[in-house]
Design a protein that fits this description.
Layout: E1 24-27, H1 29-32, E2 37-44, E3 55-57, E4 61-67, E5 71-74, E6 77-80, E7 86-89, E8 98-100, E9 107-114, E10 119-123, E11 128-132, E12 140-143
Antiparallel strand pairs: 1-2, 2-9, 3-10, 4-7, 4-9, 5-6, 5-8, 10-11, 11-12
Length: 155
Amino acid sequence: MRRANALAADVEYPTGRPTGYGAGFAELGPGLGASAVGVSVCELPPGESSYPYHYEYGNEEWLIVVAGHPTLRHPGGEDELEPGDVVCFPVGPEGAHKLTNRSDAPARVLFLSTKHRPGVAVYPDSDKVGLWPEDDRDQIMVSRAGAVDYWDGER
């Protein structure tokens, strides 16, 4: 049996993230042998967010608060969460979300997500769309302002 402990998982803080997105992560899925569902621990120091406000097409995401009191922004407003809270972010705009730690203590959450490809994420605040197909060479993040007509560049 493979197992992981969300409270004890060692998180790594990626470099190159902008100010306000200083979250740490530990990917648990690969060590557990998961292939259909991604599972990661996210540690949020005070004042930090995990990811920009976004929603997905093709993948459902879940959040489970393990420790702390992060604030969840969603289409209906904002709510402070507490340990034990479970939230599902359905596919599409109704599942939009952003997690920020506005408390004085670190927060730790589990993110779970289906891993269907292609996946699409929409970022309403910055008006971007990201695409994640099977082949990583074709991943792209684009501004909606740069959209072209279907026939652009065709003969």
